[in-house]
Design brief:
Rossmann fold, 2 domains, 7 helices, binds adenosine-5'-triphosphate, four-stranded antiparallel β-sheet, globular, alpha/beta
């Protein structure tokens, strides 16, 4: 498989007030193959969102380079969709119009509303087509964002704890849906979470980000089929190993 994303020695130092600096990332090296589902796992504040924002082209690294399909990333691009913790929908458009919005803008209007309805069904939001975002819970808004993102058929999806606000049942249904979508498309996903069980349920690779400044401390390849059984001895073994690492090292 060819590299979809390559991060070469990425560092990020934020300037704080006065003369203070915060080194959020240092020397991050990572290659993501096309079609991979890479989960970046780490404690709160270890630099996960910063890393994802750099790959999205929203934040420039202080040093190092990110390439996607061999081209340097220096700005956001519609082919790299970033889903953040905070759902971002246009408040004056209905749910259905929000999902259809990106495709409509790009002139991809064939079966537009039918496709938007199908994606809403896949994220279990049928029946809410005519609602405004303000009339939905945060978790429901996040599902609409996911439908909108996937309707655009991006080849790279960057997900920053997208299911953090969802209840356990909805979250596990969306995990199943993500896996189905992954099997049906060539989509490459980088998914950030601090939830170990979520990482084990989804990742074809799990990379642990930690340290000061944040860098990749360990990596696990999870060659297990979906849907995954948390009782799978291989997954349980990896879980124990990661738990030990978190306890031993200040990840
Ligand atoms: N714009 C910014 N200016 C200054 N410091 C920042 C900025 N963004 C992030 N940081 C700092 O960089 C570090 C990494 O932050 P980041 O949001 O990437 O962590 P995270 O692992 O995503 O955390 P969480 O899981 O809590 O969302 C933190 O110490 C944070 O305070």
């Amino acid at each position: 498989m060819t590299d979809k994303i390559r991060l070469s020695d990425i560092s990020k130092i934020f300037k704080l007030s006065g003369r203070k600096r915060k080194a959020a990332l240092g020397g991050v090296r990572l290659s993501v193959a096309e079609g991979d589902f890479v989960v970046v796992l780490g404690r709160s504040g270890c630099g996960k969102s910063t890393l994802l924002n750099i790959v999205a082209g929203m934040v420039p690294p202080t040093a190092g380079e990110v390439t996607v399909d061999g081209s340097a990333v220096d700005r956001p691009d519609p082919s790299r969709i970033l889903l953040t913790q905070q759902p971002m929908l246009l408040p004056w458009l209905t749910v259905l119009e929000n999902v259809a919005f990106g495709c409509k803008l790009r002139g991809e209007t064939e079966d537009l509303l039918l496709r938007a309805r199908t994606w809403l069904e896949r994220v279990h939001m049928t029946g809410h087509e005519s609602y405004l975002p303000g009339e939905l819970s945060q978790g429901m808004q996040q599902r609409v964002c996911l439908a909108r993102a996937l309707m655009g058929q991006p080849d790279l999806l960057l997900m920053d704890e997208p299911f953090g606000a969802l209840d356990t049942f909805t979250r596990s249904r969306l995990h199943e849906e993500m896996m189905r979508i992954r099997q049906e498309t060539d989509i490459t996903v980088v998914f950030v979470t601090h939830d170990l069980d979520e990482a084990l349920a989804l990742g074809s690779r799990v990379v642990l980000l930690g340290g000061e400044p944040g860098h990749i401390m360990a990596e696990f390849k999870l060659d297990r089929s979906y849907p995954r059984d948390p009782a799978d001895p291989v997954l349980r073994g990896v879980k124990e190993e990661i738990m030990e690492l978190f306890q031993e090292v200040s990840l």
